[in-house]
Amino acid sequence: MRTIKVLIVDDQVLICDGIAKLLEGEKEIEVVGKAYGGQEAIEKAEQLNPDIILMDIRMPDIDGISATKAIKTKNPSIQVIAISVYEEDSLIMEMFRAGAVGYILKDISLENLVNAIKNVYRGTTMINPRISRKLLNLLSQNQNLGEVLTPRELEILREVAKGKSNKEIGETLYISESTVKTHISNIFQKLGIKNRSEAILYAIKKGIL
């Protein structure tokens, strides 16, 4: 794996600099920049073209939701992970609608933060377990998706929402990895989407998550 370029965005200087300092020791991660507000994040994303942005949500100038929308409009290949202390349903949904592919809380350990960055870089979705439970509860309450997907496909979508790999999903559901791949391909085809991140975003946009 090549070095993952990360931009850190947080209006609290101590937190922003602290995360950067923690990530300095990671061989596969390079902190290419820091931004202390949404407008600065938009500008630095354009200048530095990071692979991943760790994006705070509530900031005084331009909030993380608006900044994420602006960044994703200009450069859809940049992946945004929300990092916040807030667990409100509305904020979670708005961040995903804006284009984020991950949502983690600031009490995360360094090991889990590094894993989150690597997983998102590889193309999976990363959601804090507490946030994931909120989303999955909303998913289980909605009947429309169940009319589109089979019960097994719905099970697999739930596991995808937890950020699991095909191998991990297979182990959880006691099916082969190739079977998981087939089901995921069918899910993508039915929902008209291309990847795991879009699967979650689709569900959120439709009010399923």
Topology diagram in text:
Layout: E1 4-9, H1 13-23, E2 29-35, H2 38-48, E3 52-55, H3 64-74, E4 79-84, H4 89-98, E5 102-105, H5 110-122, E6 126-127, H6 129-141, H7 144-148, H8 151-161, H9 166-173, H10 177-191, H11 196-205
Parallel strand pairs: 1-2, 1-3, 3-4, 4-5, 5-6
Helix pairs in contact: 2-3, 3-4, 8-10, 9-10
Question: How would you describe this structure to a colleague?
Answer:
- This protein is an alpha/beta fold.
- The chain has two domains: 124 residues, Response regulator (Rossmann fold, 3-Layer(aba) Sandwich), CATH 3.40.50; 73 residues, Winged helix-like DNA-binding domain superfamily/Winged helix DNA-binding domain (Arc Repressor Mutant, subunit A, Orthogonal Bundle), CATH 1.10.10.
- Helices cover 56% and strands 14% of the residues.
- It contains eleven helices and six strands.
- Strands 2-1-3-4-5-6 form a six-stranded parallel β-sheet, with helices on both faces.
- Helix 3 runs parallel beside helix 4.
- The radius of gyration is 17 Å and the shape is globular.
- The chain starts with a strand and ends with a helix.
- The model has no long low-confidence stretch (mean pLDDT 84).
